[in-house]
Amino acid sequence: MRSPSSFFGVLFILALISGVHAGYDFFYFVLQWPGSYCDTSSGCCYPTYGKPPSNFGIHGLWPNYNNGSYPANCDPNNPFDVNKIQDLVSSLRTNWPSLACPSSDSTSFWQHEWDKHGTCSESVMDEHGYFQDALNLKSRINLLQYLQSAGISPNNAFYSLTNIKSAIKTGTGHTPWIECNKDASGNYQLYQVYICIDHAGTTLIDCPVFPTGACGSSIKFPTF
Ligand SMILES: *[C@@H]1O[C@H](CO)[C@@H](O)[C@H](O)[C@H]1NC(C)=O
């Protein structure tokens, strides 16, 4: 007679063979335009080590499910430890700066991102691998160059959302999601760009699902 445990054992092996992996399906790699963070009514604070470059910065690398929801805070037993990423700190300060107030050295931003999002990818990458992966993606994806090649520059002018998306698609090969926020006068502007990355964190893919949110058809690209 077949026992229940062997029945579940077979199911488990079938799940492994069919490629089911625990945790998440793909990543959103989210880049942020600092000018749009700073010109809102609440403003921003530069890091203690100085004004970040006039370029997109990393917000995070976020595991997501194909159904649109996402896992969070997956492993409280593996909290952020800055000692594990000492060799990356100087690059993180430039490429992953915090603009939150009060001014900080950005460490608490990286800590939040690892604890909330990074721990959900630890079956694939450890803490050092997670931050290294995000930096590698950032150096491969030059959003500002893609936009400027299409005549779209951070000069406080308004640009068509369709043209912004198609300029980024020309650069990356895939349609991005654009998240808008509002400046102090209430104008929609280019705030964050979502690029979809496969489960391994290496290959750009078409987004299985897009986030939602309001944005104008013509949006501001503020200076920084
Ligand atoms: C989305 O998919 C995940 C993983 O399969 C599941 O745990 C979660 O409950 C689903 N959420 C919704 C809203 O369907």
TrEMBL record:
A Pfam family annotated for this UniProt entry: Ribonuclease_T2
Keyword terms: Disulfide bond, Hydrolase, Lyase, Nuclease, Signal
Signal peptide location: 1-22
Annotated active site: H59, E113, H117
InterPro entries per UniProt: Ribonuclease_T2_eukaryotic (IPR033697), RNase_T2-like (IPR001568), RNase_T2-like_sf (IPR036430), RNase_T2_His_AS_1 (IPR018188), RNase_T2_His_AS_2 (IPR033130)
GO biological process terms held by the UniProt record: RNA catabolic process
This protein's record includes keyword Signal: yes
GO molecular function, one term: RNA binding
UniProt cross-references to CDD domains, sorted A to Z: RNase_T2_euk
Gene Ontology cellular-component terms listed: extracellular region
Residues forming coiled coils: none
Transmembrane segments: none
Similarity annotation: Belongs to the RNase T2 family.
Protein name (Swiss-Prot/TrEMBL): Uncharacterized protein
Native source organism of the sequence: Rhynchospora tenuis
